[in-house]
Amino acid sequence: MRALHQLSIEQAAGLLAAGEISAVELTRAVLDRIRTTEPLVHAFITLTEEDALAQARQADERRSRGFAGALLGIPIAIKDVILTKGVRTTAGSKILGNFVAPYDATVTRRLREAGAVCVGKLNCDEFAMGSSTENSAYAVTRNPWDLERVPGGSSGGSAAAVAAQQCLGALGTDTGGSIRQPASFCGVVGIKPTYGRVSRYGVVAYASSLDQVGPMARTVTGCALLLGAIAGHDPHDSTSVDRGVPDYAALGTASIRGLRVAIPREYFVEGMDPEVERAVRDGIDVLQSLGAQVTPVSLPHTAYAIPAYYVIATAEASSNLARYDGIKYGLRAAESEGLLAMYMRTRAAGFGTEVKRRIMLGTYALSAGYYDAYYLKAQQVRTLIRRDFADVFTAHDVIVTPTAPTPAFRVGEKTSDPLQMYLSDIFTISINLAGLPALSLPCGITSNGLPIGLQIVGRPFEEPRVLETAYAYEQASAWRQRWPDL
Amino acid sequence: MALGRDTVRHIALLARLDLTEDEVDAFGVQLGHILEHFERLSMLDTAAVPATAHVVDVTTAYRDDVISNPPAAEELRVNAPARDGDFFKVPKIIE
Asked: Judged by CB atoms within 8 Å, which residues 183-202 of A form the interface with B?
């Protein structure tokens, strides 16, 4: 048998249900694994070992009283932009360095109710702004496959922890690719649900028309189980949609025979890594061999997605982050003359460079005389991008693309050029603008040992079809059996 | 083209950010570079295209006016960077 920390969620659930292991044993194994690997990986901002063991004992006790459920006693971890009552929640920022969440986010509460055991809070780019987790005020998380490389971002701690077997699953958030790109870089499965599928109540806001919470795990089924627990309407989030939550994990009989798969030519661009292109094309061949009908299509406004995204996201961020004023919570700069100086010094001391840059960019785009040229224009282009997808989905069931144009890049490689960093989100960003569900799963490993991700995009609320497609591919390939040598 | 230093300082004031002189210079260059990339948007004719603010139809959600989250004043106040008893403390506002 595998070591306990290596189990997938569904494997562990089976052993727990059969009484072969206890939640306490499983949690201890995961905490041991964290102790040996964390000095190398730095995936966590806060570890909650004692809480985790208490939750594990409670899970075992609930099970003894007849409570069942696939997540009961499963050790998971949560990105540090998601509130966890009584536990520090920093959003990767100095400005929230001492902030103890006074309540649980809805997704946290739902995982607790399902009996999941939270082992800690995961590192991320500050306020989820970044593609490498290098913008965290706390640590640079390392990619478990190559410690000289980034895990991707912004949910880099989430992806690295799952890949390093420090937890069986994790929650991340995805505003422009922040679940899928790190999942791709770290060789795990991650899904960004349809906008409105999962509540954002208690999630530190970055760009509210784009932000969405989603799970990561080692397998498609693991992601499906976590998604099933967190999805659903929440009266506390008026953007959450009131519709039923299907059984996402019912994947056993999934067949993709006759599935109409669209391949957008704009996602195979000059300059992309040839090994990535090869692996993704091989992945598409696998889908075809399973009975899918593969057709090339065009998403003609793809080239406008990055500018549209960075206008909209930074404008919304500049507004959302106005709340960090040093009064009710968070950091306050020492002695300042008057309120305005206090605001300005507090924010200067509390925010990192990338957050300042995005607040500046968003403030500029919203400032007098520029609103129509930037923000309104970007929202109109957003409509064109949505229409591109809607057109393709009239005749196709899913769209398949690479998740990122390259495998994980080196720590420090892109920090000096913000625009280059922004361009690494080129294949994930349009999907947030259109609000669609999309999943990344491993489809290859480069010659120097770095994972490659395949992205599967679906129609709004068609997570089941996205998961079924991913599951069919996963069962037909062997990538999930590869582990980082750590 | 880099943004002028006065423009950067004006935006920083609107954003309530006290920038160092080095940051003013660096942001001027970087924002100018990024805004040039944004110019690509102006190549599209969007005169007849409606704006997308949200991808789902967000409508006002109504509910009965019943307290569902009991007041937890102390739990909220413990995060205050400066307080005086039950009050949040701020720098002097009125002379």
From this structure: 195-196
